Amino acid sequence: MKKTKLLSTAIATALAATMSAGADGVKEAKNYINASGDLMIYGDIGDWWEGNDAFSVVAQLEQANPSGELKVRIHSNGGSYLEGLAIYNALKQSKHKIITQIDGFAGSMATIIALAGDEVHMPRNSYQFIHLAGANCSGNHIDLRESADQLEEFSNQASKIYAERSEIDASEWLTMMSDGVGTWLNAEKCLEYGLITKIIDPVEAVAHCIDLGESLAPAGFHALMALPKTKDLTNDAAAAADNEEEEDEELNKRNQAHAAARMSVGGDNPEGGKNELSQTELSAKAITAERTRQAEMRKLAKTSGVSADMLAGWLDSDTTIEAAREVAIGEMAARDKAGMPSGRQGADTVDPKATMKADIANALLHRVAPGENKLNEGNTFAHMSLSGICREALMIAGHNVSGMNPNQIADAALHSTSDLPNIFADVANNEMQRGYATRMRTFERFATRKTMPNFKAQNLTRLSDAPNLLSKSENGEYEIGYLEDSKETLALRTTGRVIRISREMIINDDMDSLSRVPLMMGAQAALLEMRMVFGLLGSNPKMGETGKTLFHADHKNLAEGSVPSTDAIGKLRALLRLQKSKGAKGEKGFALNTPLACLIVPASLETEVQKLVTQVQSVTVEGVNPFANMEVIAEPILDEESETAWYGLGDKNLVDGLVYGYLEGEEGAFIDSRIDFKSDALELKVRHDFAAGVADYRGLVKNPGA
């Protein structure tokens, strides 16, 4: 079976094809009951403008002949799946004997509606087109996946409806629907597949149509089938057959041009000569332009709210889009002027509350740190006291502050809807973050960061090596090897403090509560992190894997005590290199060969160790410094535990040693705020969630000093 694949734009070009001899269907191209009592479904399924939505079609169905059969004539490219399904079910449940007839083209959902007939008729030169359900979708990956599943369900349901009327199963219908953009079917194929019950003779108006079968549609096919919807582009042949009243001269000229285009399927003009230009292209361009004009005008009418009579006048005349747009703008301007109170002019507005919040925050930050926060130009809150800012903010928020003393101003600022409590909290949080960032956290250079999704203790799991491959005897069995894991835990620790901004502080213009205090608390939060991480070295915690302390002779990470020297550093490096991985169950591990990445020393040893790692030009091999330029991190927190012990750490990318973490999405310290009704103060709660621990003793070595 050969299938023709056409782009959706090509399908759209053939949508206005009319196989009916009646001119009314050509003129209106919408749902209605004609003089013969036939239900006409012409146009897009679900288009309420054309009356092809389910509500309109069912309403016409209910007004149809009270008894006897009902003929439903279809010429549609399809449309809304759900609207079409409602029409299909209404026809299936009708008390009438339903005869559906495809006058010209049934595409997509229109083919489903056609199958609702007890009999389905189709002229020999008409067509059907089937394809998968489609839609324009947007959103995130979940939305798009749900849309895809829904479209797949619609396609599967359509294939089942096809299968119910034919000898072909649903899977084969799905194959035809999914081949490229779909499959074209002529009347013979539709009869063969069971989509129709009868082929009828084509009407005279399209007697010249070429029988396409399932081959590629020729260029003349579009000129033959693409007729405009509006009455100023009617079918001349149908109009002459019905002896309609003669149109004006300009209308006749346009109709003659379209008639000539329809007669030139083979490429010859009526006089038998060859056309210099393709009549098909001329006709297609004219039809496309007219459809574009009508669509744009309908859209313009809807958005601008012009009357239906005005829209009809545009469509029935040669009014251009530009001319219609000028009229629509004039109509809207007239309505706006009529509805605007006298003396008032429309203008762009700026939210004064948003401007106020930004200006107050800028003014306060400039006061606490003028070198880092420049004043915005035109800031009306610049250089104001806290009390003055509160008074001005209350006035902007609509409060009457006339006669209020400073105590009342401060009280109103903390308990009103002036947004001042939130502004104060934002300024304090800004200063706290500045203090947090100022304090250096050197542990980030050697410790590994972990993500902490919640406050539960997190297992730091290290799997053992894979089991060794063992020899197998001729008739023996493979031995089973077992992995082992080493679990250490890491848990968040929450710390915090509350700052109060009272009415007295506002009256006294005490800026320390917004600046100095949060700044110092931010620095303290960073210092707390340093103490938690470096404190692990001095406290020598017990390891979950072995039940022994971090630095222990059995862990082979504890050197003989000595003052720092080149030889002593070399011994630390050797201990790291020789550390063995955790072997599989019943097996030994392998040397990790971890390089020494840095030295961590108390402040009392910083100068001596820096001398040992300084690059010195040497003229002998003995004078070469093997540890030149090694990183040295000095931390006075270590001096509190020991002024002589010093440490070596391996590369954190190769082995986990010290680890730390924050609550996911909240790195550092944060401020929460609330009004304390007992003290009439604004409470700022500084909250800090941090975790520190040791993941593996194999990444750290220690010299206890001498």
Shape label: flat
Query: What share of residues are in beta strands?
Result: 15-25%
Biggest sheet: strands, sense, closure? 8 strands, mixed
Mean pLDDT: 76
As a whole number of angstroms, the C-alpha radius of gyration is 42 Å
What share of residues is helical? Answer: 25-40%
Contiguous low-pLDDT stretches (5 residues minimum) are 1-30, 204-277, 340-348
The CATH class of the largest domain, by name, is Alpha Beta
Q: How many helical stretches?
A: 22
User: Which oligomeric state applies?
Assistant: single chain
Q: In total, how many beta strands?
A: 19
CATH level 4 superfamily of the largest domain: phage-related protein like domain
Query: Do you know the CATH architecture of the largest domain?
Result: Alpha-Beta Complex
Based on secondary structure, the structural category is alpha/beta
What does this structure look like?
- This protein is of the alpha/beta class and about 700 residues long.
- The chain has four domains: about 10-215, 2-enoyl-CoA Hydratase, Chain A, domain 1, CATH 3.90.226; about 230-335, no CATH class; about 350-420, no CATH class; about 485-705, phage-related protein like fold, CATH 3.90.1690.10.
- The chain is about 40% helix and about 15% strand.
- It starts with 7 loop residues before the first helix and ends with a strand.
